[in-house]
Amino acid sequence: MSQPSPEVYEQGRGMDAHNEVMRSIRAQKDRTYDPHEPTRVWIDEDNTPDGVRQSLTIILNTGGCRWARAGGCTMCGYVAESVEGGSVSHEALMDQIEICLDHERDEADEASPLIKIYTSGSFLDEREVGARSREAIAETFADRERIVVESLPDFVDSEKIADFTERGLATDVAIGLETATDRVRHDCVNKYFDFEAFVAASEAAESAGAGIKAYLLCKPPFLSEREAVEDMKRSIRRCAEYAHTISMNPTNVQRYTMVDELHFRGGYRPPWLWSVAEVLESTADADAIVVSDPVGHGSERGPHNCGECDDRVQRAIKDFDLRQDPSVFEQVSCECEATWGAVMARETSFNMPLDR
Fold first, then answer.
1. Which residues of 38-71 are buried (b: 16+ CB within 10 A; e: fewer)?
2. Order of strands, edge to edge, in the sheet holding 211-218?
3. Are strands 40-48 and 51-59 parallel, antiparallel or unpaired?
4. What is the DSSP string of 85-126?
5. What is the pLDDT of residues 17-57, one digit of tens each?
6. Rounded Cα–Cα distance for residues 97 and 149 (Å)
């Protein structure tokens, strides 16, 4: 795995200090999870390079993200849902897949053309999903149209991806880049790799006949609302050079994270839904499919506006995801947009949020 430069991150400072804090926060976790049951599974619709497709989304329960166990990202609490002990057997992983297929049979009229598999870490990290399990999963879904697997750049390898592409599956590797700005990724997200590692991973995926889906993070901690919006606009345009799809994830407040600690003390507010709409509308001409799925919208711990217009703006975002038509945002308005405008103009970094 890539390591931060010692010139920038000295012992006891920078990422080392971040990770020490993150480990102490994560140590508060007190729940355990069954390795034979997936973390989550659901049916949805997604915009793909081939059009809108029904999707089966699977979050496998594995030993969790290797980076998160070292300390990890400031906003990510998914490792808290992982199985203790660091690994899950092949048999248990395949039991999880069978439960997901049962769910699909119960909830959908037909098999989903699009399969999306996540592990709350890296599907291509063989400490989480071994080669035998990866090959079996590829064979299980070989009759589908497209598959998306998530990974940190370190583990993107053409031979691993070939397990899917050689079975005729259109394959996308989803990478949690978070931002195209290295300093924001390092200092606000506490993610160790540089943008160049993302570029190298995209080249490795391309050599195996796969595409790239980039995940970006709207408003990590320590950025003002305006800075977060500007960073997303820049990041989307830069990522569009390498990824055919860009998913912008507005930060939501998850347990056992630094963001949760900040939010509890009044030092962090999730992004406004107006900010999400602003980014999507202004980057609609980017050379990529740009989507967003605000998790927990309308709640205090999720992206939200005033409470009155949240559902309307969320519907407009979902409509944009499927149609890529920025005019949908002209159809929603609310008095709180003026408050958002004042926040955008006046809020500064490393300060208390101006509005809850």
1. bbebeeeebbbeeeebbbbbbbbbbbbbbbbbeb
2. 40-48, 51-59, 114-118, 146-150, 170-178, 211-218, 245-250, 289-292
3. antiparallel
4. TS---HHHHHHHHHHHHHHHHHH-SS--SEEEEE-SS-TT-T
5. 777 777 777 677 666 678 999 999 999 999 999 999 999 99
6. 14
- Continuous H helices in 208-350: 225-239, 258-264, 273-282, 310-323, 336-346
Residues in Cβ contact with 68 at an 8 Å cutoff, skipping those fewer than 6 apart: 26, 76, 78, 79, 120, 121
Please classify residue 190 by burial: count the beta carbons closer than 10 Å to its beta carbon, then call 0-12 exposed, 13-18 middle and 19+ buried: buried
SS3 184: helix
* Residue carrying structure tokens 């796969």: 210
What the block records as the tokens of 280 is 């999507």
Q: What is the pLDDT of residues 211-241, one digit of tens each?
A: 999 999 999 999 999 999 999 999 999 999 9
- Return the residue matching tokens 């070939």: 162
Per the DSSP assignment, residues forming a β-bridge with 116 are 57, 148
- Write the pLDDT tens digit of every residue in 246-262: 999 999 999 989 999 99
